[in-house]
Amino acid sequence: MTGTSFIGLYAFQWIALLTAGLTSLLLADALAGHYRSGFTFRVQYAPFISGGLLIIAAVAAAVAPNVAWLNTALRGASWLAVASGLVGFGFHHYYGIVKKPGGYKWLLHYLMYGAPQLAPLALAIVGVLAVVAARGLAGEVSFAGLNMRAALLALVAVALAGAVLQATILHYRGAFNNPAMYAPLTAPLLAVVASIWMVVAPNSLILFALTILLWLTFLLGFIGLGMHLRGFERQMGGLYVSLFNLLEGPPAWAPALFAGFATVGLVTVRLL
Amino acid sequence: MKRPTERGGTVKSLRQAIGLIKMGAPMHPIFVHFTIALTSASLVFDALGFFFNKRSLTAAGGWTLVGAALMTLATLSTGLTSATRAPVEEGEARSFLRAHMALGFIFYGLLVAITFWRMSLWQSGQSVSWVYLAALAVVSLVMTVQGYLGGELVYRYGLEVEQAYRELPEHDAGSPPPQLVSSKATPPPARTKKHGEAA
To answer: Where are the domains of chain B?
Structure first.
């Protein structure tokens, strides 16, 4: 097994488990969003099928990393999640912007109030992470021409950049009514820069800075969870009117994605 | 609606006692004690182990912290369940509730982070350091603030407190306690108006 272990699990086992956790968070928010829109299209069930398969395959492959058919299953489920995410992006773009009254002329409005444009791509990036995890579990040492460490850091940079962008759009919609809403633009954004730097020109100083920034991003994820919960509670009735406010309030689990992607980065820098 | 025993009787039989069991009782106040006890015990064990160089105490500190991180999952989930059952109007209590909910996840993030730190120390065979103890003290401080907010919600605002006990006939929260030595010179205290009572 590649890398060092942490409490009995090696780096790619951790990454497989983290992809399962990240997928669960994504599906929880997708369920709220698709339920709110009434599951108008049958294709809105697709992420739950592909994501569900990915969760099962990732956990199984992490538990039994030496079983070849489980590794193959993880690769299959991962590519299915990637495809599902890309198709979802197309649907969100077409039905969330293009087909809406005004279309691109009302781009900012639909970016804020329409289907979240980058959410399906989060499933795609988690799928790619799972592909890397499957290859790592099988003992392969490179992905897309990069060594595993560089490939994972590049993926973490892309994922965090997407999460920051989506959060910025939605916090702009919320008029940054609380100073904490600027938090995604701080440590996570710097972590993106540091991750890219580590891919291009790795050195010990940047590695130290990246580790600190990833820990801060991890903590910001939990702060975000708490603040989003506070956001529900600020609405009429708070969590006492839980389903309504859960559908109308801020995405409940989205901040945890920051913590999740940061953990993937921390696993990469500490165990690989 | 008050329970049968609150209509005038006391519990006299096992059957009557069983009849008082109510499913769906708030579990959050039970689990918070595990979080508080395990986290603070971890700090105490680690500090004692650090100062007296006792490995058994630092081991206990590590395991209690892992226990705290696991039990706090139950604390968080039962806390959310309690929040969904709390019909609190906008006002002071709701502000306390909002702060308590936000701080809960922040505390958990800190707890998970320090648990990973503790496990990496254990794995590399290192002992705890001053820096680690200071960080754990900060986490415990956040937990104390969080516990204070929760305590206010229950004891000041009565969140999830059923108030199904029988009050003493002459009880009045606004009046001073009865005097132990009678004094004819002191007039009896004026009865203060209860909340919501008509003038």
So the answer is: 25-155
| CB contact at 8 A, B68 and B101 | no
- Co-location of A67 and A27 in the same domain: yes
Task: Name which of B98, B101, B105 is nearest A222 (Cβ-Cβ).
Answer: B105
Chain A residue with the nearest C-alpha to that of B110: A219
- In terms of domains, do A119 and A149 share one? no
B123 CB neighbours in chain A (<8 A) are 6-7
Decide: B32 and B47 in contact? Cβ < 8 Å. Answer: no
Q: Specify the number of domains making up chain A.
A: 2
Q: Which of A75, A110, A140 is the last residue of a domain?
A: A140
* Cβ(A74)–Cβ(A57) below 8 Å: yes
The domain in which residue A62 lies consists of: 7-140
- What is the tens place of the pLDDT at every residue in B131-175? 999 999 999 999 999 999 999 999 999 888 876 666 676 666 666
Q: What is the pLDDT of residues A84-109, one digit of tens each?
A: 999 999 999 999 999 999 999 999 99
* Whole-angstrom distance, CA of residue B35 vs CA of residue A46: 39
**Residue A40 in domain:** yes
Check residue B181 and give its pLDDT: 64
Measured CA to CA, the distance from residue A110 to residue A94 in angstroms comes to: 11
Q: Is A102 on the interface with B (CB under 8 A)?
A: no
Which of A140, A173, A202 is the C-terminal boundary of a domain?
Answer: A140
Q: Are residues A169 and A59 in the same domain?
A: no
Q: Is residue A231 part of a domain?
A: yes
At residue A146, φ and ψ (nearest 5 deg) are -110, 150
- A99 and A171 together in one domain: no
Cβ proximity of A33 and A245 under 8 Å: no
3 state DSSP class of A142 = strand
Asked whether residue A2 is domain-assigned, the answer is no
Which residues 180-239 on chain A approach chain B with CB closer than 8 angstroms? 215, 218-219, 221-223, 225-227, 229-230, 233-234, 238-239
In the numeric block, the tokens 């804020």 are attached to A112
Nearest-neighbour CA in chain A from B179: distance (Å): 44
Same domain? A219 vs A176: yes
Distances (CA, A) of B131 to B125, B136, B140: 17, 9, 14
pLDDT in tens, B5-31: 455 567 888 988 888 777 777 899 999
Residues A176 and A219 in one domain: yes
Q: Tokens 């000041």 correspond to what residue?
A: B156
Would you tell me the crossing angle of helices A204-234 and B92-123 to the nearest 10 degrees?
A: 150
- Give the CA radius of gyration of chain A: 19
* Rounded Cα gap, residues B138 and B93, in angstroms: 26
Is residue A128 located within the same domain as residue A172?
A: no
